[in-house]
Amino acid sequence: MTLALMHGHSGTSVLGERSVGSGIGRTIAFVFEALERQRTRRDLASLDDRMLRDIGLSRYEVEMELRRPWWRA
Question: Quick one: pLDDT at residue 6?
Answer without folding.
Answer: 44
